[in-house]
Design goal:
The protein has six helices and no strands. It is mostly helical. The N terminus is likely disordered.
Length: 186
């Protein structure tokens, strides 16, 4: 466990030296913290919203680009949606990858971190985003010049953000998802 993630554990090193032992035995304030990943139950809504916004940025870039390319090329709904989803994952992972690589991590490790941090978040976001567009009357047939295209896309991304934020709060609270990325930013 990383004790520096919990301010009330900062005294642990001094007590460890004083008692001549390692571990949580004899420290009442440490009970219940053994074996967790550092963020158990500690994810704030603000932290979850920031992680979701980060994910939404990459997803929105890919989603919009895919929809614009597919629509401009006259592709059908299914190939356009597939392109948009692939690009959403690509840009979502890329933004995380860029940040982790800046922390000095090798590419292979950074790639694994991006997969671990973003896969569930992007998948939920894409499911909700594309589900809203599919269910929205006439949205799938709207062209780039139609207000419906842009309005349905914008609203679908907002709904995806609202639904994905609790998912990110849950994963971060368990030391997963974007909590993995935060380990490389400190």
């Amino acid at each position: 466990m990383e004790h520096n993630t919990h301010t009330r554990h900062e005294h642990h090193g001094a007590q460890q030296d004083q008692h001549g032992r390692h571990g949580h035995e004899g420290h009442e304030e440490h009970r219940g913290h053994e074996g967790h990943g550092g963020h158990q139950g500690g994810a704030s809504w603000s932290m979850a919203a920031q992680a979701t916004l980060h994910c939404l940025t990459g997803c929105a870039i890919g989603e919009i680009l895919g929809m614009v390319i597919g629509t401009a090329l006259g592709w059908g709904n299914v190939p356009t949606m597939v392109l948009a989803i692939v690009l959403a994952f690509f840009f979502g992972y890329s933004l995380t990858l860029r940040g982790v690589l800046r922390a000095g991590v090798d590419f292979r490790t950074a790639f694994r971190v991006a997969l671990a941090a973003d896969t569930l978040s992007i998948a939920v976001m894409e499911l909700i985003d594309n589900g809203v567009i599919v269910l929205w009357p006439d949205a799938m047939d709207a062209g780039l010049a139609d207000a419906l295209f842009w309005i349905s896309l914008a609203i679908s991304l907002v709904i995806a953000f609202v639904v994905t934020t609790p998912v990110n709060k849950w994963t971060i609270g368990r030391g997963k998802g974007h909590a993995v990325v935060h380990r490389y930013h400190h």
